[in-house]
């Protein structure tokens, strides 16, 4: 999966209790030391192929204009910037469906 600045992403919170969050990637940091898992002092890049399995993080801006960051493992589905409008709309619909159909694991665990 290729992550690029300017792409739409779906991010799953690390604690797994909140619904996924949509956002647009605005920074990517790759770790260069084992102790720097978020890549804070690592390389700042424009794109990153997640199949390389480096540790690091990315910053993103939500639909509510909140600035947030997440580890690479929280990334769900980036949308390439050069998709046609129809494909982009289909992806947005998929992201919305994932968020609307989200079931809180705590609700399942409690049998509700």
Keywords:
single chain; about 110 residues; alpha+beta; SH3 type barrels; two-stranded antiparallel ribbon; about 20% helix
Sketch the topology as an H/E string, one letter per element: EEEEEEEHH
The DSSP helix count reads 2
Estimate what percentage of residues fall within beta strands: 25-35%
CATH topology heading: SH3 type barrels
Mean pLDDT: 81
Proportion in helices: 10-25%
Radius of gyration: 15 Å
Question: The biggest beta sheet, please?
Answer: 5 strands, antiparallel
Low-confidence stretches are none
Proper CATH architecture: Roll
What is the molecular shape?
Answer: globular
Q: Using the coordinates above, name the CATH class.
A: Mainly Beta
Distance between the termini: 35 Å
Instruction: Give the tally of β-strands.
Output: 7
Q: How many domain units?
A: 1
Write the layout of secondary structure elements.
Layout: E1 2-4, E2 8-11, E3 21-30, E4 43-44, E5 47-49, E6 56-62, E7 67-71, H1 85-100, H2 105-109
Antiparallel strand pairs: 1-5, 2-3, 3-4, 3-6, 6-7
């Amino acid at each position: 999966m290729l992550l690029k600045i300017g792409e739409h992403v779906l991010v799953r919170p690390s604690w797994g209790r909140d619904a996924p969050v949509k956002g647009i990637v605005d920074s990517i940091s790759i770790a260069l030391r084992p102790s720097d898992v978020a890549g804070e002092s690592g390389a700042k890049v424009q794109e990153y192929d997640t199949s390389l399995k480096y540790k690091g993080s990315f910053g993103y801006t939500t639909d509510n204009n909140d600035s947030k960051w997440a580890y690479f493992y929280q990334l769900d589905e980036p949308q390439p910037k050069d998709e046609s409008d129809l494909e982009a709309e289909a992806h947005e619909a998929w992201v919305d469906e994932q968020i609307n159909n989200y079931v809180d694991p705590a609700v399942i665990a409690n049998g509700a």
